[in-house]
Amino acid sequence: MKHVFHVVTDRMNLGAMQVMFRLKDYGGAHVEVRAVEDYKFLNSSYVPVLRQLESANLQRFYFENKLENATKDTNNMKFRNPKYLSMLNHLRFYLPEMYPKLHRVLFLDDDVVVQRDLTALWKLDMDGKVNGAVETCFGSFHRYAQYMNFSHPLIKERFNPNACGWAYGMNFFDLDAWRKEKCTEQYHYWQNLNENRTLWKLGTLPPGLITFYSTTKPLDKSWHVLGLGYNPSISMNEIRNAAVVHFNGNMKPWLDIGMNQFRPLWARYVDYDNDFISLCNFGA
Fold it and tell me: What pLDDT does 79 receive?
């Protein structure tokens, strides 16, 4: 199979990433590196998140370092991180428009390690669904009620609070089904309604859960094991059997705070002989 990897970064890092990918051969695979700024349709007249970022209210919420802001909402301080409004974070909602000739695409976050062949995903019968994802709920955890404000009448009316959440990070998207279901329009509809953050706080998972509410196909859990950036109790057996492991959380393996038992899963793929990589001073 001919593999094409579509890597998207920002203008500032584009040159460095293009050079990095040209330094090696990837077994015949083609690596396309583009900057988010190259997608001209992603502007504030089309993208609600960019328009909202221009609003004075949201800029105050993020960038005014006032004491009352810091103390008033301490439970939700993590949602004040501007990464939740980064266009790179919200690109996942525009895949059919970014790649209009593609029928299917495998979406991978930048903090995952692929441990085994993913070809079988391309043969998957998606049953007309848009998003193939691993479900994350167990007991009462990671249900829709945890991600959205069910005291809001619109949320209460449209969604089941006990519906099972699923994970971003390794998702198989049927872009033809996406176009047919008009998922990007759905995302825009809800993102516009949430300008005052009354439906959900921030981030891409809640609008993802909303957008693909009835169009997600659950994948076997061994495809995607999460939590290597915050949960030290994941079993090594579960990790060994995983197709993709995901260092979601703050304890990334390239940082000093990364967990020692999980770091080798990432470090074994780092080319420490590369002059540029050695300058990064990663801990092996």
Answer: 46
